[in-house]
Amino acid sequence: MILAIQYHIQNSKEMLLIVLDEIDQLCSSKQSILYAIFKWPSLRNARLLLVGIANSLDLTERTLTRLNARCELKPKHIHFPPYTKQQIVEIFKSRLEEAEVLDIFPPVAIELLAAKVSAVSGDVRRALDIGRRAVEIAEQQKKAGNKEVNLQKFVMETEGNIENLCKDILKTVQVTHVAAVVNKVYSASQSLHEDIEQSFPLQQKIMLCSLMLMLRNQRNKNITIGRLHKVYRRVCNKRNIHSLDQAEFVGLVNLVQTRGILHIINKKEPRFGKVQLSWDEEEVTAALCDKQLIASILDDTASLNK
């Protein structure tokens, strides 16, 4: 493949632009592939602009030291800083506006969410996941009858505009919901057993059990979302439970991450994202094994086979 690309570069009569995302995934012991790639612009007759995207800014200095010895090969760096608080606020609001649900999030809740995420990582995907989890909690409380209703206003407006009153009542996402999710994501103080037992959907339980099954029985602990989805799908199929497709599964894993139980090392391609447990394995196992279905999954080593 490398030789074929080099041949095309040397024989192309047009200016070429090659963009390589996640180039740190090409790292090897001798870095032969990366060195070959960075030499492409200096090939005879080459008319090439090469752009490499990596998670670390010092990748070339740290792993490709020989490039610094040749001026024509030394790459120029462009740093894309994490999102600021205001940028996260604007992106979050735009997503809510697209879904026509901007009014369910009070501005102060969005400000709190954006401030915390920008201070820790600046990852807008984490901000969106926290928002989704806050909505989920608010909906659970509303269904349980725990929503706050201003009874005085209800009495005064019963004979008035009922539609507007209902809209006020349905504004369920509060600062407390966002703060609860933020604390779970960035703190390890909550009770895992309580979190799992209270409104933890079946699909999320099966996903987490599939992860535990892999960690217990496979030597390769480097678990990607793609690998996890395959095992999860086999577990569901054996039990006649509807399984999510990979796109839906990525969203499910991200939601569990907002509970603070998982940590995802994100990649440009979601299925290559690495999934890690943020909690002690024995503590997670003890909480999950309370249910017969969950215990059966943890013992189902046959689902690990291809």
UniProtKB/TrEMBL annotation:
GO terms for biological process: DNA replication initiation; mitotic DNA replication checkpoint signaling. Belongs to the CDC6/cdc18 family. GO terms for molecular function: ATP binding; ATP hydrolysis activity; DNA replication origin binding. This is Cdc6 C-terminal domain-containing protein. The keyword Translocase does not apply. Gene3D superfamilies: 1.10.8.60, P-loop containing nucleotide triphosphate hydrolases, Winged helix-like DNA-binding domain superfamily/Winged helix DNA-binding domain. Keywords: DNA replication. GO terms for cellular component: nucleus. It holds the Pfam family Cdc6-ORC-like_ATPase_lid. Residues 208-288 form the Cdc6 C-terminal domain.
